[in-house]
Amino acid sequence: MFIKANPKTDKKTGKSYNYYRLCESYRLGDKVRHRNILSLGTLIELTDNKDFKLLADCIEQLLGGKQSLFPSSEVVEKLAHKFYAQIIEDKLVDRVVVSPVEKNIQSVDLDSIEFENVREIGSE
Questions:
Q1: Average of pLDDT values for 51-80?
Q2: 9 lies in which domain range?
Q3: How confident is the model at residue 9 (pLDDT cuts 50, 70, 90)?
Q4: Across the chain, where does the E strand assignment appear?
Q5: How confident is the prediction for the chain on average, in pLDDT?
Q6: Is 103 within the bounds of a domain?
Q7: Which of 25, 45, 72, 107 is the most buried (most CB within 10 A)?
Q8: 117 lies in a domain?
Q9: What are the distances in angstroms from CA 102 to CA 19, 58, 77?
Q10: How far apart are CA 72 and CA 63, in angstroms?
Q11: Domain tally, the chain
């Protein structure tokens, strides 16, 4: 998934701005096409270009039922959950995965890991 900017111009004031859409790529024969999933609006909350990529990745992780390894900003998280809820409510994507059961997740203390019976195989 990615976010595509669509430039617009206000006819009354002549001011130009970007309107954003959440899109996904798919292949049709030998050609790659883009499918619009959701119109996101002007997204004036996002100030940096990398935030758009983080937002698209965060929405994709929510749809896939995955947890984020790297936390993003609070604004991006809030927008991602808002758009995720809208996608689920309107049934805009058919490949939504239910998040895994919490019983299968275990925490590991990396400072407590020890090596036992270490063997070398071949040259290093």
A1: 87
A2: 2-98
A3: very high
A4: 2-9, 16-28, 31-41
A5: 86
A6: no
A7: 72
A8: no
A9: 38, 20, 21
A10: 17
A11: 1
The secondary structure of 50-74 as a DSSP string is: HHHHHHHHHHHHHHHTPPPSS---H
Amino acid, single-letter form, for residue 76: V
69 versus 55: the higher-pLDDT residue is 55
99 phi and psi angles, rounded to 5 deg: -60, 150
Q: What is the pLDDT of residue 103?
A: 59
Would you say residue 67 has pLDDT above 80? Answer: no
Query: Is 122 contained in some domain?
Result: no
Nearest Cα residue to 88 out of 59, 68, 66, 46: 59
CB 43 within 8 A of CB 33: no
The whole-angstrom separation of Cα 7 and Cα 20 is 9
- The pLDDT score that the predictor gives to residue 40 is 94
Give the pLDDT confidence score for residue 97 in this predicted structure: 60
- Establish if 76 belongs to a structural domain: yes
